[in-house]
Amino acid sequence: MRNVFFKFVIPFFFLSILLPSTAVFAQSSDYSEMKSLVMGTDVEKEREDEGEKENKLLGRVVAIELGGAPSTKPHVIISQLTFKEGEVIYVSDIALSYKRLYQLGLFSYVRIRAEKVEDEDGNKTIVVDPDLEKAPDGVGDIVVYVEVWQGFSHYIFPSTSGASIGDKDIFLSGKTLEAAYFKSGSSFLYWHMRYADPQFAGSHNTANFIVSHLKDLYGVRDELNYDLGERYSLNRDAFKFTLNTLYNEDYKVSFGFEWQDNDTEHSNGSIFADTNKFFLSDEEFTPGKALIYNFDIARYAARGNPWANRGYSWSLGTDQALSGLGSDYSFGRYHLKGTVLMPIDSIIDTAVLHGAYSFTSGNPPHYQKPRLGYRMRGHDGLDYFGDSTVFLSGELRKAMFNNQVQGVAFVDLGKGFDSRTLSFNDLDMSTGFGIRVNVSKLVGMNIVLRADYGWGEEGSRLTFGIGQWIY
Q1: CATH class for domain 157-466?
Q2: pLDDT tens digits along 441-454
């Protein structure tokens, strides 16, 4: 059995590490110039340069044409432009539009160009601007061409997807030692070491001790259009202790704390007006230490082996950080989620409905706000955070091949909002299919391997992981 473990699990572990780090990006001579413009740190010099260009009028925009190789919906691209059709624009409008498109993090290459419009006689048409007494000579109507090319990436995220190696009985006493590692390109890295004692201070108590490191790319929301504005890199070292116990044999109660040291730096187009405030959105940039107290109560009443196919589950939880009690800031997070599994006697075995809602209190930094992560399959997890988040999902499942393989079709709906009021408006959607393979008999452990392929507004994504996903 040990040979089988090294034959199947170890290769999958290293494949899941190496695969997401593979990325293909389009490049050109313009790319380095535009990237330096977006990521420049000398903000005052940049403002002076833009101020000099501000009076250089390009013309009146009579049309905006999109091109390149985008899989992103047109309205997402257009919402980042600082001008509209019918408006008179300057060179600085083009420069700022470059910045906003790059800092979305969706595109590996962006090009914006303007072409003057000529009449039938070859003469440039003249701008008619009510704010100008006389249009400058030689300046006329223009067409702006915006071309973007998407980058390719695979995403792995902790707790919901990724790879881990552990031994369920490494100390011959039921205690567990686990190592996990997750990586996606150069912008995301997560690892942890976990030690679990299943009989901590009583037979119904389980204690978890986790040391972890996280490097991730986070965004700041632009309040005007609810799209991501600027982004920065978060580096977090953390220690977490959690005690799980059972109440009435039915309810799982968890409580504990997590200490975090959060260090942040601007990245991928974050532009600052000063040392701690973003240029575009005027949002505060707040690194610091946090001591977060956790409490959660859950009921799990789903049944079925090896696939959960009937029953329900729910959980209620909160995280609290209090200034003066080990934290540099105060905030609260509140979470509610539930799942219903319904057996169906037809071609499909099981239907699954899942919902989750989170919101905040106080003034949490951006990286402490609720985040859907990559639960929205087919989407970039950076899009889904805010003062509240909503996630809804439906799955149809079918067991195959002597109940060792399960096929899945799914629909995911979700959104992050700059409001603490529950809302179902303008939810983004992704659809797709997946497969789960039960390899427990091969490796002697309870392991399910998962792959999902989803289509979202930014294109399609393939995600690998461990577990059945939603129970």
Answers
A1: mainly beta
A2: 787 656 788 888 99
Distance (Å, rounded) from C-alpha 332 to C-alpha 321? 6
In this predicted model, what pLDDT tens digit does every residue of 199-219 receive, in sequence order?
Answer: 787 667 888 999 999 988 777
Query: What is the distance between the alpha carbons of residues 304 and 311, in angstroms, rounded to a whole number?
Result: 9
pTM above the 0.85 mark?
Answer: no
Kindly list the domain boundaries of the chain, sorted by start residue.
29-150, 157-466
Q: Give residue-wise pLDDT tens across range 106-125.
A: 676 788 988 888 766 666 55
Question: Given the DSSP bridges, would you call strands 141-150 and 57-69 parallel, antiparallel or unpaired?
Answer: parallel
For residues 390 and 422, the answer to whether their CB atoms sit within 8 Å is yes
Contacts of 339 by beta carbon, 8 Å cutoff, 6+ apart: 302, 312, 313, 314, 352, 353, 354, 355, 470, 471
Q: Domain 29-150: which topology?
A: Ubiquitin-like (UB roll) (3.10.20)
Please determine, for residue 128, whether its predicted confidence score (pLDDT) is greater than 60: no
